[in-house]
Amino acid sequence: MPADRRSDSRTRNDGPAFDLQALKRQIRENERIWNGFRQVELGMLGAQSLRELVSNLVRDIPRLFPNVDSVTLACVDPDLELARHFDTEGDIQPSPVLLSISAEALASLFPLPRQPRLGPIEDAIRQLLFPTAGEMLKSMALAPLVLRGELIGCLNQASRDPGHFRADTGTDLLEHLAAVAAMCIDNAVIHERLKIDGLTDPLTGLYNRRFFERRLHEELDRWARRPGNSLVGMLVDVDHFKRINDQHGHHTGDRILQGVARLLGKELRGSDVLARYGGEEFVLLLPDTTEDQGFLIAERLRALVEEATLGEGASRPQKITVSVGLACLSGMGSPVVDDAGAWLLR
Predict the structure, then answer these.
(1) How far is CA 86 from CA 93, 96, 209, 241, in A?
(2) Nearest to 184 by CA among 270, 341, 73
(3) Is residue 280 annotated as part of the catalytic site, yes or no?
(4) 28, 98, 208, 244 — which has fewest CB within 10 A?
(5) pLDDT tens per residue, range 79-116
């Protein structure tokens, strides 16, 4: 019996060795990866805007996963809504990290059943999803973003290491992260829409009085801090607008206001502000504009409206005129304005 037991012992020792240290290292690595994904997820959930959401993604993923060298987000954005929300300066520019992709191109990347793609990176995908990274990227992990059953974009990572992203790697955490990203993008867009709805005029699509007065206070503070700057404000009033409403109806009046709004906004710079102040009154704020420049702009806008026929879609389009008042701050000092509108309306 003792001999048999010794024989059994030798049989066990001669078999495959159980590497406890390797298992511990794998457990620690799995914990690191899980914690990294969790931090990225928390960064997305805590973002207050689309720009912050995207910035968190492209910052946190390479920071937490050092072999990831490039991160982009591609979304179907035919109306440039995401681009407008992303670009806080108001002048939409192509972004190297938030990319626009057609629905057709996206569907070809992720045919049903919409699984992540991992492995060597192809030249066409490198150009499409990592346009500024050049040929240094060798492997990729692309995760489809699906929201309410619809493919809306993809979260893209790439590495210079050809073996970093492999086709045989598990994708559960990546799919979870993509699902959270899709929900966060949707929430960010809804949040931006609510902000815009609270600061815009529903008839003309222009900013409303509330937004204008906020921006006017900001520009007045900026003017006071920077001697030598000039600031022009304009009040534009549609002449005899009550008579138009009385004679031709409010539908025609609405169409005329929409036409005036379109004409007034035709040549605005990114820093300029145009708002509907109330009724038939519009206001413009033109930073870094001298009084002489302001008068030229005012005359050009007045003539532009006078030459147009407005009220498209109404039964009787109209020729109208507007009156333009102008105020200018220049030189040094602090403006005494208790109410933002008082500067223009006094």
Answers:
(1) 10, 12, 24, 38
(2) 73
(3) yes
(4) 28
(5) 888 988 887 645 556 678 999 999 999 999 999 999 99
